[in-house]
Amino acid sequence: xxxxxxxxxxxxxxxxxxxxxxxxxxxxxxxxxxxxxxxxxxxxxxxxxxxxxxxxxxxxxxxxxxxxxxxxxxxxxxxxxxxxxxxxxxxxxxxxxxxxxxxxxxxxxxxxxxxxxxxxxxxxxxxxxxxxxxxxxxxxxxxxxxxxxxxxxxxxxxxxxxxxxxxxxxxxxxxxxxxxxxxxxxxxxxxxxxxxxxxxxxxxxxxxxxxxxxxxxxxxxxxxxxxxxxxxxxxxxxxxxxxxxxxxxxxxxxxxxxxxxxxxxxxxxxxxxxxxxxxxxxxxxxxxxxxxxxxxxxxxxxxxxxxxxxxxxxxxxxxxxxxxxxxxxxxxxxxxxxxxxxxxxxxxxxxxxxxxxxxxxxxxxxxxxxxxxxxxxxxxxxxxxxxxxxxxxxxxxxxxxxxxxxxxxxxxxxxxxxxxxxxxxxx
Length: 427
What we know:
The protein is of the alpha/beta class. 49% of the residues lie in helices and 11% in strands. It is built from 17 helices and ten strands.
């Protein structure tokens, strides 16, 4: 399996919006742009909502069948580790190996020394096409990088081989696939850390990935700034642009140096709604003729709430009830996401105030249109993490999604195509 140059992680909390999500990619295809859909959902989300990886697979398959999609598509076991990957083996063909928790943990000294010896040839000046700076590599620097990252990559190797044993060895492009079971896409995720990786660190991380025999097709590094859930990027846009371009350059260089898959590309997690960095991303992709995988889980769930509110009646009542529940359980709901949300509680409306709103007002406050005076990013972030409240409504919520399918679908498709795909890949 080969992941296309551009791919889109269309996560869906409740497995109801596969068709309108795919419709946005079909609109892009009509413009001559091929984007591979990847339905992604994490173990945490499945656990909270009560779904299973098989539900995500069914959502993807049903959408593809309904629209006659003839291109590749994938189902991503998002942010998995050895402790939870088994539940995803059968239904998934894309695995995001999350090893951030192992970064900085002590590695066997012999393995570190072996790594240093293997890559001593890079000691001295290192020039990478696309980066103005020439890096001066020292033996101590290689050792420091190995101490920090090698255990994490070793763990990624363990997870990869566990999946490989269950699903069969991925075939190389053009090879005879006779007797091989279906293969899969591998991503290595290192984004949930405190500090971004430097270009030199990225270079040796990719060397370690090659050493582990992981045929990674995407890698998710950490970038400077805040990638808060469901809202715009917070940070120095120029600084991000520099880091992004440097990472593109390092990936292209490392592919040649270490024999990694030629289509290896960057993956941006929590990439939905990061509108201020879409322009520099688009420019960098053109400059380097590079691909991109971007994950947008969560933005669809918010469009479901917007659609319910706009539908009025019991749809609006459910949307208001979700907010009231979220407000009363804020600490509980925000806890798992504390590193990726920044909510000013003083700027949240009361439940009593929201109860007086009509559907248009609710939608305007929630919809991510920063030019709208009513838009409230604190309101949006709280509802982003409030899907547990909706899940606890059971069939009442899912029945409402079915009842108001048309208006919700319109919002889902428009959001993905107009606010995400167009500025990233078309405009």
